[in-house]
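Thread: quick sanity check before group meeting

JM: Hey all, I'm pulling together slides for Thursday and realized we never actually wrote out the predicted structure for the chain we discussed last week. Dropping the sequence here so it's in one place. If anyone has concerns about the input, flag it before I start.
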Amino acid sequence: MDKVTALKVKNLNKYFYEPEKFKVLKGIGFEVYKGEFVSVIGKSGCGKSTMLYVLSTMDTDYEGSLFLEGQHVTGKSQNELAAFRNVHLGFVFQFHYLLPDFSCLKNVMIPAMRLGVRSREEIEHNAYEKLKMLGVDGQALKPASRISGGQQQRVAIARALINEPAIIMGDEPTGNLDSRNTAVVFDILQQLSKEQGKTIITVTHDNDFAAKSDRVIEMSDGQIIKQK
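JM (edit): ok, ran it. Output follows.
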């Protein structure tokens, strides 16, 4: 069975200009296939989170070409990119960024409400099903501030999944979690990759987490130095 490319980046270069011009990404190029679980590792300051920000389409100030889900997204307007992200991309960060006073269910519903494709009833049903899949449906009506850190991160994953994105990007998604919850989150991401064909791209400092994913991309000084 032929592999389908989910993400392709060609000759990606990026500069920072403060306090002086500095090349932070240098000729990055690689592909990620549909359903693949890829971890990006490297020391702090190597450029991995900067690269993820470019891959996520949230940073458009770069040189090179980026293709996502078969679309050439380089050069698209901010409105076009925002619409693309809402449909195709889900994000999980080190900090969950849940609205503390909103219920877990409402937090998960927000991206779908913003997309505006389904009815409120359908969105609520889908949000509850996502929480159920992640084992936190019992927390659905609690304010997000009243549940544990591990539960909050699972709610954040449910939120990332609500619009059924093809690609999920994680920036240190287990950075604030203990080893038990890190294992839970890894298993969830692996299940999404293997059983639902989601493409997972995570930046992590956790070498054990990375080693269990399908492929590890190692960065140093703004370049890819190894893939295994």
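AS: nice. The radius of gyration is 17 Å. Residues 179-196 form the longest helix (18 residues).
JM: adding both to the slides.
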